[in-house]
Specification:
alpha+beta, 6 helices, 226 residues, 10 strands, globular
Length: 226
């Protein structure tokens, strides 16, 4: 198992919305992240991953924003009571129904179960990769925001998540890159070979020129239609 420490590029991670309640005034509570589950990107968040970030947030005295679709220019509320419990990252949200138009859309969608996703924005501070299982374990995360998103499990949401990573200067993970290849028409076998060989080498390279070429490749692939 290889371990990688140090601050990574900005990333996002989507979950099916696990809301315990939605009040008439726009208050709701639920989980922004669940521990122990390997997601479609081959990553898993461990218990304690948010502990230091939540401690720093509490010490700063500021509230974490609720964003609409990861748009930093569109805050629609704020989080309070964020904590880790035995299941995951739990919090209480307050939607600004009187001041943010998209908060009303989020509220109506959540009540109707038409909007079904929460997604966290974060930096990876400590992670390890198991070459045998292909699973990346995220053990320390710097939490930046938690967004309400539409249908996080569908293909469009996955593409938007990857676009957000690239826009913040990051690179898709190996499994994300493989999914991009599948989305633009490559077979599973070919996509797996490309992602696990050449692309893996690029991610592990310290060469800025190689990383730049990989960025351009990802952008080009996303623009192709079949």
């Amino acid at each position: 198992m290889n371990r990688k420490s140090g601050r990574s590029a900005y990333r996002v991670r989507a979950f099916d919305l696990e809301v315990k309640s939605v009040g008439d005034a726009g208050q709701f509570s639920g989980y922004g992240s669940v521990f122990g589950n390997v997601d479609s990107y081959g990553e898993v968040v461990t218990s304690g991953a948010f502990a230091k970030s939540l401690e720093d947030l509490a010490a700063s005295g500021r509230a974490l924003p609720i964003l609409w679709q990861h748009d930093s220019y569109t805050p629609i509320g704020s989080w309070s009571g964020l904590k880790e419990d035995g299941r995951g990252l739990f919090g209480e949200g307050d939607l600004w129904l009187e001041d943010a138009p998209n908060a009303k859309i989020a509220y109506r969608g959540m009540k109707a179960r038409a909007i079904t996703g929460l997604s966290i924005g974060y930096y990876v501070l400590d992670a390890s990769y198991n070459e045998k299982t292909g699973v990346r374990t995220l053990s320390e995360l710097d939490l930046v925001e938690i967004s309400i998103v539409t249908n996080p499990a569908n293909g469009d949401a996955r593409v938007e998540a990857v676009k957000s990573v690239i826009a913040h200067g990051g690179m898709p993970s190996i499994s994300e890159f493989e999914k991009i290849l599948r989305d633009v028409g490559f077979s599973k076998n070919v996509a797996t070979r490309i992602a696990s060989r050449g692309y893996r080498d690029v991610l592990q390279s310290d060469s800025g020129s190689e990383t730049g070429e990989a960025h351009r490749l990802v952008e080009r692939l996303k623009s192709i239609s079949f």
